[in-house]
Amino acid sequence: MVAILLALVASLPVRGQEEMLGPAPEDSFTVIVIPDTQSYRGQGTKAEPKSVAPVTNGAFESHMRWIVGNLQRQRIVFVSHVGDIVDRNTTSQWSVARACMDRLHGRVPYGISPGNHDMKTAGDASLFQHYFPASRFKDFSWYAGSYRGPDEEKLGNNVNSCQLFSAGGMDFVFLHLACNAPDEVLNWANETLRAHANRRALITTHMGLGPLEKPKTAKDFSDAPKGRMRWKKCYGERGNTPQQMWEKCFAKNDNLFVVFSGDQSRTQALRLVSPNERGKPVHELLSDYHQYWLRVNRFLPGKNRIEVYTIDSRDSRLCRGTEKRSQADQHCFTLDYDMSVAPRGNRLSVEHPAGAVLATEVLVR
Prior knowledge:
Elements: H1 2-11, E1 29-34, H2 58-69, E2 76-81, H3 91-102, E3 110-112, H4 126-131, E4 143-146, H5 152-155, E5 161-167, E6 170-177, H6 183-195, E7 200-205, E8 209-211, H7 220-223, E9 226-228, H8 242-248, E10 256-261, E11 269-275, E12 281-287, E13 293-300, E14 305-312, E15 317-318, E16 333-336, E17 362-364
Parallel strand pairs: 1-2, 2-3, 6-7, 7-10, 10-12
Antiparallel strand pairs: 1-13, 4-5, 5-6, 8-9, 11-12, 11-17, 13-14, 14-15, 14-16
């Protein structure tokens, strides 16, 4: 009996170092991506409609604690939110969201891409603009402003924004675009990326990967073919689908190398590698967990590699699978990205082998 018990104990999984996210190496830096934070509880929330308790969001608060507590250990240089920062567009939820994001304020550069839950269907994002206006960031040197142009009242004031940062001897430009951004925003994005053509570009926008066509049944969300979506939720006829945003903006800019998105909690995790108009690879990454899972993107310039980890923000445990996405390599994986060649072909001081250029789209399911 003792031998049997010992054998059973030996067979149990041990939470070893390989199951936990270790510290970032000195020659690396990290960009954090926060998936949709819709897990609100309390009065007036979808989860607890009859509750009279104050509104809270345990997962959101956990993410903030982990990020602030790991700024140095993980060498975090930027934090991006994919949108759907709230579940219901109410002041009670926005107050909680603002209190959560306040923990980052003044500690690390960050940006937010408004999702469909963060605005009205026609594009009214007034509550987002009230709690996260452009004026909130005006004193930060890394904040490079927001959309200026037609319909600026709705589309500007941080609804579509630009941030600049430098890390690992490289300069970056980061755009945060609203869900289904209209043409005038994409024109601004193109102009902004061209103005910063010497910087490596990242974009976060709420809708990206998921069911190719708009689901007609609940089953379609999980079983229908997936990739860059060809349907939309916001701005009516003016809005652009993820596929249209790719064609009108993302594929046209040589310095863009990654696009982050959320929105599809029934897909949770998906990635796509596509060549832009000049054949350079662009990584598109979906993460939407609605729980304690947080995305950690560790850049390793000396290895021309980005290591992507999904971790539980309560304890740094690595995600080895979920009920909806059981494969471990959907949550923790590696991306090839050549960091030895600067935009416009200017060589950096250290040379490394160039990354492979893909000739066709590769969808990783």
